Amino acid sequence: MNIGEAAKASGVSAKMIRYYESIHLIPTAGRTGSGYRVYSATEVQMLRFIRRSRDLGFSVEKIEELLALWRDRTRQSADVKRLATDQIDGLERKVREMQAMIDTLRHLADACCGDHRPDCPILADLGQGTEPGPVGKSIQTAKATAAQLSAFR
Amino acid sequence: MNIGEAAKASGVSAKMIRYYESIHLIPTAGRTGSGYRVYSATEVQMLRFIRRSRDLGFSVEKIEELLALWRDRTRQSADVKRLATDQIDGLERKVREMQAMIDTLRHLADACCGDHRPDCPILADLGQGTEPGPVGKSIQTAKATAAQLSAFR
DNA sequence: CCTTGACCTTACCATGATGGGAAGCACTAT
DNA sequence: ATAGTGCTTCCCATCATGGTAAGGTCAAGG
């Protein structure tokens, strides 16, 4: 099977298949005499495993661990479960951070009449600065930086 | 005021201040005779505006628009509000996607006894593949790819 | 006056996962 | 034989941020 066919069958782009091979997430694919990569059903299954794991938000690093457990017939399901619950925890943390942003934004947006006039509590709040002092003067809900947000994973 | 002091006063790292200048998000800072950047209270206020916007998850691109509206005394508050509600929409979409992942993961984790035995429905599900066919055989809740997730912003 | 330490400057590299494109070779169907 | 599609490798871009290195500057104290 060609890389293109494997891509179609697994839902992983050819580009990413080559990338996964280059970072050794998957073993080096076999080659035809002319240098084309060749994939078997087993390898496509592994690619689907990866694809599904990515769909659940796992990082490549975590997928490496998942694959290792998958291959290991003497694994302990507790180890797999821990990976899953860690993933849940991380996602939930992210959701909470974003929810805090949403709450703040909605609060601000609700206060903005949103018409032709220039007065805007949203800009007023952003411009005010929200000092890190003891008594914040503006709505101070979202504490997470966008940087911190994307930091996870 | 030095870049270090401006960083402390605004909550934006010196590194990022230079970066924001290089991409023209903020105007070119003045310099002392020896080449040190100099910042006034006005510029620090702009940096705080940026910092706060980032805290609310706005991309640099969106912050550019926010800053333009901030400076424009003839702005229409509707334009600001639209930026805010768009941001809310984007965040909510992301939250929904992550919530779907969480739901799927929790479902799987709940089914995993998590002990010393190797049997694990989590790996079984990942390995099974969840074909894109009409009748998915495994739990199929999370439809968003991690790629799509981070694609926003 | 000289040293020390803290701070500034620029320039380059790295991150994580992915896409895009170019140049060149291989395969398939007409 | 030729056209078209698909494969190969290699390089670049993303986005916002941090790290590091080599070198210049400033302020305080001996």
What composes the largest sheet of chain A? Answer: 2 strands, antiparallel
Task: List low-pLDDT spans of chain A.
Answer: 131-144, 147-153
In terms of DSSP E residues, the strand content of chain A is under 5%
Q: How many domains make up the 3D coordinates of chain A?
A: 2
User: What's the β-strand tally of chain A?
Assistant: 2
Give me the secondary-structure category of chain A: mainly alpha
Q: Mean pLDDT across all residues of chain A, rounded?
A: 87
DSSP helix fraction of chain A: 55-70%
Give the helices and strands of chain A as they follow along the chain: HHEEHHHHH
CA radius of gyration of chain A is 23 Å
Structure description:
Chain A has 7 helices and 2 strands, in the order ααββααααα. By secondary structure, chain A is mostly helical. The first copy, chain A, has 2 domains: 3-57, Multidrug-efflux Transporter Regulator, Chain: A, Domain 2 (Orthogonal Bundle), CATH 1.10.1660.10; 95-150, no CATH class. A two-stranded antiparallel ribbon of chain A has the order 1-2. In chain A, helix 1 (3-10) crosses helix 3. The first copy, chain A, is elongated. The interface between A and B is large, with 68 and 68 residues. Chain A binds a DNA duplex (30 and 30 nucleotides) through residues 2-4, 13-16, 18-19, 32, 34-37, 54, 59-61, 146-147, 150-151, 153.
SSE order and pairing:
The structure is a homodimer of 153-residue chains.
Chain A: H1 3-10, H2 14-22, E1 30-31, E2 37-38, H3 41-55, H4 60-71, H5 77-111, H6 121-128, H7 146-151
Antiparallel strand pairs in A: 1-2
Helix pairs in contact in A: 1-3
The structure holds a DNA duplex (30 and 30 nucleotides).
